[in-house]
């Protein structure tokens, strides 16, 4: 009998998608997937290295898994996959002797044979090689995290080399999947009953497939906006996409959203800073004016589009005046949601050489000030939803109350509501009666839309 495998996933949606693919391949090769590390013969940690804290968490976790041995059971075989694996490579074996296997970000297809080599007695098995031609992207529905919402990678890697960011090193160069393959996957998911598709990639709007096959019938100024139209044409109820890179954000994306109601009313467009000086040092390829022009296209759309963003505070050399520029930009953009990060130095990035000049205390102060500003803006935006209807995909029972269900709106807001016999997987209108800073609350609107 083959071994049981447990994959624990850290980090972004790309890692979630890789875990689903890895599990599909392992099951095909005869392995059984289990729901916890305690019952597994093989534990794979699918890791994130975007900030130092995420990376430290992995090494703590390896220590815990190592101790899962008991008098009746050997400790599980331990493998590290994902971004830490790709970046740290063989040094992981030196730092964590309990690790048996290191699986790079492009070896997702080869895991079963790597596990076999370890089981045959080989020490320190490692695969940091490139992807092979004809690679299988198939994900079995049984391995998907949700039976209603599916992540579909459209582009991998990143060519942008923002000076703070490790992703181009851990994930390699941009590589787009063919449109035909993407559309076929979306159609399969739709036939299986999936209600919502997230097209994912570090920069979805830099999508550039080798051939236009599959996109011919669709107009659009960029391959990505044509792909959006092609995917919308599958008739899938809800289609979301993230992340958009500001420099490549063509207004035709907004036109596509206006043409197809099943393209959801949400754009995630990370700005990172509001200071032109800092944006330049970050090598983002856009200044604040370029960014605000994109925002203008989104805000003046005929649809009310939600806008969210990421910001780093305390980038090397960020002065109080730069931070003030960021505060000003956030006031101007009126984001529906904002992820704020304190700058974290990453080995091997250009910014590693910049003097990390902002003290930890100052980073915290700026983080909290920005968070407070965002909360006041967001409260106002959320209050505006009271009395309005939003379309919600019901996901599960609310953790707070057994009488309530929870889900996301098309505009990516958490919506809780009185359950009234509704079931997970349904899409329904909720009339909002209460707004909290990070969620909405309401009742199911039974009567049809006016
Ligand atoms: N492709 C996306 C970002 C990927 S990383 C983009 O276009 O921006 C996700 C977020 O993590 C980034 O948007 C950034 O805000 C944050 N991040 C990345 N590297 C970081 C670092 N070294 N320190 C702090 N935050 C970082
Ligand atoms: Fe990172 Fe910039 Fe690419 S933030 S993922 S290098 S666009």
Give the strand content. Answer: 15-25%
Question: How many strands?
Answer: 19
The backbone outline, from C-alpha atoms, is globular
- In order across it, which strands form the biggest sheet? 2-1-3-4-5-6
- Hetero compounds: S-adenosyl-L-homocysteine, FE3-S4 cluster
Regions with little confidence, pLDDT below 50 for 5+ residues: none
Distance between the termini: 60 Å
Which class best fits the helix and strand makeup? alpha/beta
Characterize the biggest β-sheet: 6 strands, parallel
Helix content: 25-40%
Tell me the number of helical segments per DSSP (H or I, 4 or more residues long). Answer: 13
What is the overall pLDDT average?
A: 95
Cα radius of gyration in angstroms: 23 Å
Strands, helices and their partners?
Elements: E1 4-9, H1 13-28, E2 32-33, E3 42-47, H2 52-66, E4 77-82, H3 83-88, H4 91-95, E5 101-103, H5 111-119, E6 125-127, E7 149-153, E8 155-156, H6 167-171, E9 175-176, H7 179-191, E10 196-200, H8 223-232, E11 238-242, H9 252-259, E12 266-268, H10 276-281, H11 288-299, E13 306-313, H12 320-333, E14 337-342, H13 360-383, E15 389-397, E16 404-409, E17 414-418, E18 427-435, E19 440-444
Parallel strand pairs: 1-2, 1-3, 3-4, 4-5, 5-6, 7-10, 10-11, 12-13, 13-14, 17-19
Antiparallel strand pairs: 8-9, 15-16, 15-18, 16-17, 18-19
Helix pairs in contact: 8-9, 12-13
This protein binds S-adenosyl-L-homocysteine and FE3-S4 cluster (F3S).
